[in-house]
Amino acid sequence: xxxxxxxxxxxxxxxxxxxxxxxxxVKAVDGVDLSIHRNRTLCVVGESGCGKSITARSILQIVDKxxxxxxGSILYYRQSGMGNVEVIDLAALDPYGAAIRDIRGKExxxxxxxxxxxxxxxxxxxxxITEAIRLHMPLSKREAKAHAIEMLRHVGIPQPELRFDDYxxxxxxxxxxxxxxxxxxxCNPSLVIADEPTTAVDVTTQAQIxxxxxxxxxxxxxxxxxxxxxxxxxxxxxDDVAVMYLGQVVEFGTVxxxxxxxxxxxxxxxxKSIPTMSRRAQGRLDSIRGMVPDPxxxxxxxxxxxxxxxxxAGVCDRIAPPRITLEDGRDVRxxxxxxxxxxxxxQDAA
Amino acid sequence: MSAHLSEMSTIxxxxxxxxxxxxxxxxxxxxxxxxxxxxxxxxxxxxxxxFSILPGETLGLVGESGCGKTTAGRCIxxxxxxxxxxxxxxxxxxxxxDLAPLSAxxxxxxxxxxxxxFQDPYSSLNPRMTVLELISEPMRxxxxxxxxxxxxRVALLLRKVxxxxxxxxxxxxxxxxxxxxxxxxxxxxxxxxxxxxADEAVSALDVSVRAQILNLxxxxxxxxxxxxxxxxxxxxxxxxxxxxxxxxxxxxxVELATTxxxxxxxxxxxxxxxxSAxxxxxxxxxxxxxxIVLEGEVADPANAPSGCxxxxxxxxxxxxxxxxxxxxxxxxxxxxVACHFAEKLTLRGAESVALDV
Lengths: 350, 357
What we know:
Helix content of chain B: 25-40%
Number of domains of chain B: 2
Helix content of chain A: 25-40%
Shape of chain B: globular
Structural class of chain A: alpha/beta
CATH superfamily of the largest domain in chain B: P-loop containing nucleotide triphosphate hydrolases
Strand content of chain B: 15-25%
Order of helices and strands of chain B: HEEEHEEHEHHHEHEHEEHHHHEE
Number of helices of chain B: 12
Strand order of the largest sheet of chain A: 6-7-8-3-9-10-12-11
Strand order of the largest sheet of chain B: 6-7-8-3-9-10-12-11
CATH architecture of the largest domain in chain B: 3-Layer(aba) Sandwich
Number of helices of chain A: 12
Oligomer: heterodimer
Structural class of chain B: alpha/beta
């Protein structure tokens, strides 16, 4: 990855989104660093509860209560005509203010996981798409309808004039997801965030949707942030990959770096736990021992040390690893790659 | 139909006699409309499937949602009463019994021998029962274990599935998804079953936990001589776990073969498309291969197309496919395909995706 040759779109630094609950504070996102470039696809991968969805929602400031951004910045490099770039810190905006509402749904839009629950069941899909268009673009009702039908055709919905008046329940799962994508793209956004867009659909439909997203990206030149737990989807769609664990990005690099020379023990373990035919011959799958720790009891030091095969006793359970940029440009949060940190294990003083 | 079925059983008779033989099984659900709830049609969820499972093997049943794989599994458990067909189960003494027409009372002894692992570990465990109550329930109802020995037995089962017996008094909410799935497995194994139907048993789990559960299922199979019918939509899990695989499409089996043969040399165009649609965890493959993207949607089982059900989406369809329904037939070496052109087509299998990590 060579950052200078690419245009930076979103730069997240030290983002923390916490949920203060009666039982304690859930640190869903706890110091995330990542960047999204124009025209590229970033895949965010991790197990459930690692904070990948909350990171995405923090960008749009749609984190559910009582969660809120407590620290860090989300710099958005907005293109404001004439080649000028304006930098906005999205984390500092009021979630209910006009500034973020102008960006949300227009310049940065979102495709949700389950279209049946994220589309309104009591409005036709046409009405829902035109609402978004009319909110952000100066178009008349008739022009907005024409534009919405054009978008529906664009995402491969047959007979869009008729489907325009359908309710979400009248469409199949794949068609609903297409309608959702049509809505997200209707204002020509510079970033589309897709949160597990294919988890609720079948493999053949998933292939259709991924193909569609790739085609639309090539045509519109937008950036895509794709959140998924499926490493197969990552390998097929990503340019850059962010691997998340317990609210942190533990490794961030290009797709080739992540798949062919993973550095963080967690990335390596994830790749090893994919079931394939060749693994079958070896007998057992390499699973990661234990489970994701309880959100109220985050381990001291490196969050992964309780499950890590390569942990250094007395170091990893004490020092929280900083973000380390390796020679090939990738970021890793692991003390195995730290050079200037005091690595001598602490012997029990007692 | 009957001709090639007898052939099927002779093949399996080479080794051991099959534990389960399913014979032209149909399960149709009536569609009722109007004030009088008149039957206006049928959803042919399962329309004439036949397969057999050998003792000790894992048979995978794979297909997209709505293809009838879950219904087929439930018919075998007799959670549904099949419309027609035979479900021949071989008892430990070697006698075969047809489960399809039996009444609830007559089924009772077989219910102990055929058990189920459910998909969703959150909704399949009663939140108001402790682990002890949950796991001992099947044994208490079937009176297989004396009440005084119950705790020891539950502790043994918990250890077997990798949980600590001290957690016996806890309620399901205190466990994570992977641990709950282990509880579900312990419950399924409580009666020492012979056949276990696992319906999407690992679909709700994360990658790392999924690997743990798959390993556990394999260990238990070896230890307790279990036979699995593994129902899943996930081809990579099927490929990893199963000895033989049956692919279903709109209520019919379109291909049945050993896992190696099915994935390396698929003979049905639907299997080819399904394998090609699975995202491969290797970025190099994305440049090399052309993904087959199926057009349109899965056919409606209440209103299936004529001839071969797959013909409207098939790349190789010819005039014959719209008129004649292909039978599932043996194309050699126990590879069964329901396609008129199985011998002529050269289809693409799964590419090697080995990553050195």
